[in-house]
Task: structure prediction
Amino acid sequence: MTLIDSLRTEARAAPESGIVAVVNYGRLREGMIPLWAGEGDLPTPAFITDAASKALAGGETFYTWQRGIPDLRQALSRYYARHFGKNFPEEEFIVTGSGMHAIQLALDALAGAGDEVVYLSPAWPNFDAAAGIAGAVPVAVTLDHSGNGWSCDVEKIAASITPRTKALFINTPSNPTGWTADHETLQAILALARAKNLWIIADEIYSLFHYGHGRAPSFLDIASAEDRILYVNSFSKNWAMTGWRVGWIKTHPSLQQVFENLIQYSSSGVAQFMQRGAVAALDEGDAFVAEQVERARKARDLVCGILGATGRAGFTVPQGAFYLFFTVDGITDSRTAAFDIVDKANVGLAPGTAFGPGGEAFLRLCFHRRLDQIEEAAHRLAKWMKNA
Result:
């Protein structure tokens, strides 16, 4: 038996990220325009880094509150009051070591070996993989795609539920499709979860990156305090903090100790000086977020205009998040296409094969970058399409 054969089956089966495979292939190329990852191009703003630096210099480097410092949990309360019109006490928030950590903790709490968790696909691949590593069975329900855009058929979700189903994972606005659930769809999903006694893991990380009027619809708009919903979120996208690895869970206050225990036995908490930066992000960052959303809107419209004019790109203009998920007429193998685009266009895209069922023919472009780069990348892609 080899060393790898002696590892857990779930660990051995963990897939290589289809996104990272392309990133590793092209990241060092001169002149590369990297639109493969889900992040913007701006560094964390000074009002956040200064707060963290001040705390670091002041000696806030010791063990801290497992569930997050009170100041940060209070700042989360203020954030939800401003953006969601809801007054939640600090006891409803748990600070985690990233949005990914929040998802892992939610899975730890809800699903184990043999349990099933239903999710909407195409989807960010990390949830599917994390569920599998936990020993649970991820069950994909594909979003519908037509000339009218992406939509969710709740009857398909209902049909996927078995006696082993423990939870539904709902990401809206969606990475990678940009699909954004309306209140009617959210209500139907919530009614299904209530009827089947299922939990919902609500990934609403892109709520503020919404191109309608104000933030995107949320389960918080329709849920009661006793509904079985875990809200997972991150500081990464809104405040240009992808490298910080700080997130949170909003949950019922009766579950605080359970999640504190899970943090104790995973990360043992987030560094306090980093949490000081997160406080500044929440309390001082609304204008920064609004500027980033408007910048992304302009970039979205620019790239859609250029690629749409080729006559070969097929897409729905995304309602939320900051990705264009598009097909190219005649191209069916998006993984091969992504590597070819690196070689011939010097643009980095994520292949749709990385996002599971329903995404195989698509490519994902992150347009959350400055406009001149987006314009140049779009023209390079248009040229590649002409010759592909």
